[in-house]
Amino acid sequence: MKKILRYLVPYSVSILFCLLMLFTQAICDLNLPNLMSNIVNIGIQQNGIEHSSPEAISENCFQLLTSCLPSEEKNIVSQSYTLIQSDDATSEYQEAINKYPLLKNSNIYILNETTNRDTLDNYFSSAVSNLLIILQDLNNQYNSVSELSYSNMKIDLSSLYSLIPYIQNIPQDKFLGIIEQANNIDPSLSEQISIQFTKTIYTELDLNLNKVQTNYTYKVGLQMLLITLISAAATIAVSYLSSKISSQLAKSLRHDVFERVEQFSNPEFDKFSVASLITRTTNDITQVQMLILMMIRMIGYALFMGIGGIIMAINKSLNMSWIIALSIIVLACLILVIFSIAKPKFKVIQSLIDRINLVAKENLSGVMVIRAFSNQEFEENLFDDANKELTLTNRFVNRVISLMNPAMMFLLNSTSLLIIWIGAQHISESQMLVGDMIAFMQYSMQVILSFLTISIMFIMFPRAAVSAERVCEVLETEPSIKDKKDVEKLDKNTSGKIEFKHVYFKYGKASENVLSDISFTANPGETTAIIGSTGSGKSTLLNLIPRFYDVSSGEILIDGVDIRNISQHELRKNIGYVPQRGVLFSGDIYSNLRYGNKDISDEKIREIAKVSQSLDFIEEKESGFNSPIAQGGSNVSGGQKQRLSIARALAIEPKIYLFDDSFSALDMKTDANLRKELKKYTNNATVIIVAQRVNTIIDAEKIIVLDEGKMVGVGTHNELLKTCQAYYEIAQSQLLKEELQ
Predict the structure, then answer these.
(1) CATH architecture designation of domain 490-574+658-665+693-741
(2) Residue 484 per-residue DSSP state
(3) Alpha-carbon span 108 to 63, nearest angstrom
(4) pLDDT for 490-545, tens place per residue?
């Protein structure tokens, strides 16, 4: 997985920007419950009154409350307000009387704009608490301080104003005792009582409290709307960038995997099946792409929301934070169980996808053979077995993971129920506000869902990790056949002479050699033929020349240079190779013939088509050389495919031609005509032909007979009939008795 993550390095700036956007989104989303709490607590329960310190207060009420404060705090409060007389004619008076109608009949104090409101709130809360203790002392209205609650407070300011002289004359030592008692009141309760008192102050001023409440609700609502829009913009930006990064990463991976596969030699293709390579290039890379996409979009956001949610919830209620901890522990146990059950199945799923791709590929490529043998039912059963096994495994994993949904719903609802139950008790004891309980519940849900998101990523990670390992396995597989650092170049006028010197070859770690002690020379201007029974090593010998495999020991030389000292590109551009099975690519006839030489002229194409005996059937087609070729050349016959493959090799005009049983699909007449024209066209090149038919190689200057990987005869056709029993038996099975004389 580390190697895959290196592909993210070019996108580091974009990823950092995504993290910044995710942090912004998390901050916005974390503030929404807090604002909703303010709407409930302040907007609804407190009529929009945010501060214990009033913005304006009547002269009598000001004297009452400041009398309940120590001299130092009293001085600070006095400096924070400006007295406006009822008979004043200043602009401040006109502005204030519109808002506070009481000013017509009474003097009021207006709060200065430069005042530290938080400090002032604390002083007013202290003043109201001190006043309550004094009232309790006077008339024993409440049985105990703990029973005081703003919900049962009924304040008559006019009756309280008569107590101002009494309060001002309270002895200092007794006043300090009153302050000490007031300090024992719960801060939350003290704040609620002071807010209720401030509401009474505003009522005395004839302030429109409904308007205050409406304005506050609109203000907070607009803040929530703005925050939501910012969060949405951040979400869109992250979605766009994460999609772009993950798709670009997948593109780079597919490019590198394909590029590495193109470098593979036959030993690597023996290790990886074609179906597996297709799965690794498509499905496995898609799994990695989805993981990167989800990691960028969700992991950072979940971490920010989880940590931020815990902090915000603790700020709302430290006493209830154990509920979040309990929920996270239960969630972790649930995830651990599901994770341990599902993880082993992900690797199995990818292997089963390989298998179903293999079965599908074999069925599609061999459909004509399947129909010819009426074996459709068997192949359908074979595919059905692979499909069922994949389906059952996927179903098992999906069932295990599907348990997450009901379990999570149960956990979320149980957590909400527990919060409401515990929160209700705190509210009844005036230790918590309703809005704070709602916000705590929302933060708890955010924390649980964040941890769920992270856990889901951990569930996705094993399957993507398996896919990443499979992709890395391809990327880390070094081709067994590589160019040396200091390669030799063939001379521009190279003749193409090929020498085999005591060549041995075996596949991989096999114990037995496929080819043993092969030594011969293929000269320019001559045709060297290789013949032998099936499995004798003919095609293997031919594949050693373009270095599809490297010899186990011995040497293969071209003009005296070991082919292992030549770059593969240099080597193969001098070789015209025609495989045993003609391979054509989708496009048209022109594109296939120009495959190895893009600059070949139309006249030259007609010439090589004529040599390969392809011109007649090409001209019979309606579009001629522009006639389409389907994938794999499925719309042309086997013989036509072979002839077009031969023409493609002729187009590059190499020094060496390798024909791996490339005439097997041709009729005798076409075969003879093609060899005749080919002889003229390649008169200066080295030609090596692997064949099963004696008639194809009967005119070769040199025929090499292989039997079980060993050379059992070398010579012309006539020489071998006399000296090589293996060749004679092959010829006897194919030629008339008269032709053997």
Answers:
(1) 3-Layer(aba) Sandwich (3.40)
(2) -
(3) 11
(4) 877 788 899 999 999 988 777 888 999 999 999 999 999 999 888 888 989 999 99
